[in-house]
Write a structure and sequence with these properties.
This is DUF2784 domain-containing protein. With 125 residues, the protein is an all-alpha fold. 72% of the residues lie in helices and 0% in strands.
């Protein structure tokens, strides 16, 4: 029971990390210091995707699921609705590279927009 709950927690943390790595640059409008957390997170996510690596959270979750006596990702709200977002079926190295480049493009757009807005604020415009 505990292992399953921990596996679900890891899955949620994994999804939140992906969302933060992809869109966390927007939080700089709220707190500029988040730059020091977001940039390494975004870089890590892009590196993992572009190099076709496995995020360390994936084996951790799978280990916890095995400890819970599960063999797959079936059942439950989190499994049904979030699993396909984090682990899309048929994911290939080319698709991972594309996802990594997409993450880079999204972050470049966000940082460009945030930088522009912050520079306008400091100039008093």
């Amino acid at each position: 029971m505990i292992a399953r709950l921990l596996a679900e927690l890891v899955l949620v943390v994994h999804l939140l990390f992906i969302l933060f790595a992809l869109l966390g640059g927007l939080l700089l409008l709220w707190r500029k210091w988040l730059l020091f957390i977001h940039l390494p997170s975004a870089a890590w996510a892009m590196l993992v995707e572009c190099q076709g690596r496995t995020c360390p959270l994936t084996p951790l979750e799978n280990r916890l699921r095995r400890l819970a006596g599960e063999s797959g990702y079936e059942g439950g709200f989190i499994d049904h609705y979030l699993m396909a977002i984090i682990y899309p079926p048929g994911l290939t190295p080319d698709m991972q590279l594309l996802l990594g480049l997409l993450a880079l493009g999204v972050n470049l757009l966000i940082y460009g927009g945030v930088g522009y807005r912050l520079s306008r604020r400091t100039r008093g415009a």
